[in-house]
Amino acid sequence: MQAVIDILENELIEKYPDILDILLRDQTTKKNIFWATGNYEHLGDAYKFDSEILPDSITGKNGNVIMPRVYKDKVLQLSRSKEMAEVFTPSWICNAQNNLVDNSWFGRAGVFNKEILLKNGTKSWETTKDKIIFPVGRTWLDYVQDTRLEITCGEAPYLVSRYDTTTGTFIEIEDRIGLLDRKLRVVNENLNTINEWLEAVEIAYKNIYGFEWQGDSLLLAREALLKTFIENFKHKFEAEPPLDYIKNITEIISWNIWQMDGLKGVIPNSCKDEIINISEIFETRTKIKKCTGCETQNIKSHNGTYCNIMDWEIGKPIIFISLLDK
Q: Which helix (H) or strand (E) holds 287?
């Protein structure tokens, strides 16, 4: 795959067997993620709102169906913004907000970069070149292990910044500003053997999470995290990572970047009305029972399918909303 922002599903299938199947997997339902948008329904039954995204639907002659938002038709972009509040954030804003997180963690500013104002009036950043120094009592591994979550992640610009989602400009590895990008920079600076590097990178991926409603954006986010791994391995070791390494990272991504209605904690549109038959002396009448969670706005009372994520410490799935009790 070339160093371009659009990750082509046809090239994924050709170069990395079985990887697209894992990227499309929904670990809660054990099916595939689904479209969860009506933007593609004009293409046929396989593209309806509730249809699973199948490899055949996005490869072969359909290989250009899914593309980053910046490449989508402007009318479609406006429609998605209006209907689903889809707004993509410029990389300089993602960087500024991610810097706030790191300023707090490190106890100082300017750790990874310095925010700057360009002559044309736009904002950007200048990457620090020196090796990252950690505060007393904290190590680089502590940073890699620290958990981060991007809510309603879209194409996950806060996690990985391969490109500016508003302009499509490709960003070189050394200048990336995502939360995962920063963890990988730290790993790259501190480890040089492949086995140690892979172990630390796996820890980094296991501590990065994100959820998204729309299936196409979710797939783009997952692809971006995968491509980030491949690019960093090549950057560090000047070689293509073996397929089993790629499969391992892809499995982690399929658990940690998942499809969810963030207001309910369930698979999008999985809450249903229940029809209850009430028998009386002379007739049977029906009553429609609404989802209690939807009626009361109680996130713990929905009748939809609650989403699972992997608790990597115990090696078992847990219900995401159970974290609200911690």
A: strand 284-289
